[in-house]
Amino acid sequence: MIQALLFDVFGTVVDWRSSLIARFEQMGRDQGLSADWATLVDDWRGEYQPAMNKVRSGQREWTPLEQLHRESLDMLLSKHGLGQVNTQLREEMVRGWHFLHPWPDSVAGLRRLKQKYIIGTLSNGGLRLLTDTAKFAHLPWDVVLCSDLFRHYKPDPKVYLGAARLLDTDPKNIVMVAAHNYDLAAARSHGFKTGFVARPAEYGPRQESDLSAEADWDYVANDFEELAAQLNA
Amino acid sequence: MIQALLFDVFGTVVDWRSSLIARFEQMGRDQGLSADWATLVDDWRGEYQPAMNKVRSGQREWTPLEQLHRESLDMLLSKHGLGQVNTQLREEMVRGWHFLHPWPDSVAGLRRLKQKYIIGTLSNGGLRLLTDTAKFAHLPWDVVLCSDLFRHYKPDPKVYLGAARLLDTDPKNIVMVAAHNYDLAAARSHGFKTGFVARPAEYGPRQESDLSAEADWDYVANDFEELAAQLNA
Q1: B92 with B114, same domain?
Q2: CATH number, residue B33
Q3: For chain A, what is the mean pLDDT?
Q4: Residue A127: closest C-alpha in chain B
Q5: Which entry of A10, B6, B100, B203 is 20 to 30 Å from A93 by CA?
Q6: Tens-place pLDDT, residues A69-92
Q7: Identity of the residue in A128, A168, A169 whose CB atom sits nearest the CB atom of B168
Q8: Helix or strand holding residue B110 (H, E)
């Protein structure tokens, strides 16, 4: 009955925080820039939901994530005393989101699931970002579905329903997989099956939310290998 | 400079004609149905462009290929004296387009190209059809781009320009690959690089068009391995 699994990507499949901190630390050494990169990355991610909220609410027209990332970076660099960072470096920092490392279990779990199901992204990232990260991290997606296909950000219904329409099947035949309870709640409200995979280190040592499943999701697993086993893959 | 290759699929990557004839011959034996399956398949494909033309011209609103296939099949079954074929079998026949075999060089060539470039579809097929065929034929796409993302059929400009927008790059950094000159002419008119791969058996022994490159396309190859070599992949 289940035909496809769609995955949230940032935090669920890839470890954006460690990847970006390591990348910026290296960049800092190369460029002779000193900063608290971990705090900068955390602050940058902190701007993620508020920036999308302006689009979600209609206060702002459709704006690709790439542009939201750049705007919030510009604001934060000034705040962190890094206003001297030049345009080229800023572009490289935004492109850092295209080259994120997977969690240790992600690739093996996806490979198992791909043998039995269609596997794809359903992310607020853009198609190019997701494609670059898939190639970098060897994520074997069958399809890349994302915000810029629908010009809406999750949890807008158009994203979930649009994905089901493109897969030409009823939402009940699709499992939405995420490390974030809000994403699963939205997917369930549209008839999707749901799979929670805990990523308690996503936000670093001080993570306080999404530490565990907050509803009776259809599947609850500690990693993708466990999820694959639950789905007989 | 080249970042991505986008491929036409029917005829360019997969051999729809032989695949469908073999499938229907088997179905005929299983169901005790006798027919000239090759002619039925050729006639069915003959309805492909006229059916899309009604959508392209605006005479008909956006209609997915799945539905166009079903309507033309219904018409042809009556014409071929197969009006007794039931609904379930008709659906199976339409789903035959989801399970097409690749040309002998397709998978090896795509695997080479994928090491160096983003590779994707840019097809008038639907996303589910292309995903099913990719899994069936082991086509290692990075992205599946197609008519139902844009709700237009090639050669509508929205398909080519929409693909470049999603890949977040200038068309000059993308090679459109097809066995059909009209597809490449349209892509070139929007600034894409072009690659012609001859598939002189696509339409069977009596093929008369697209036997060779009809313009100075950027790449002209006899198969995907040759194309990969030309692109240093």
Answers
A1: no
A2: 1.10.150.240
A3: 97
A4: B166
A5: B6
A6: 999 999 999 999 999 999 999 999
A7: A128
A8: helix B106-116
Residues A157 and A223 in one domain: yes
Query: Which residues in A lie closer than 8 A to residue B141 (C-beta atoms)?
Result: 142
- Is there a single domain that holds both residue B111 and residue B9? yes
Same-domain check for residues B33 and B94: yes
Q: How remote is the C-alpha of B206 from its chain's centroid?
A: 19
Residue B121 sits in a domain whose CATH number is 3.40.50.1000
Q: Is B138 an 8 Å CB contact of chain A?
A: no
Paired strand residues for A219: A195
A40 and A142 in a single domain? The answer is no
Q: Per-residue confidence at B206, pLDDT binned at 50, 70, 90?
A: confident
Q: Which residues in chain B are closer than 8 Å to A168, comparing Cβ atoms? A: 66, 126-128
A143-146 and B118-123 strand pairing: unpaired
* A2, A173 contact by CB (below 8 A): yes
Residue B38: helix, strand or coil by DSSP? helix
Residue range of the domain that includes B57? 16-98
CB of A13 closer than 8 Å to CB of A102: yes
* Structure tokens, B106: 């397709």
Query: Quick one: how far is CA B161 from the chain centroid?
Result: 19
Residues B59 and B157 in one domain: no
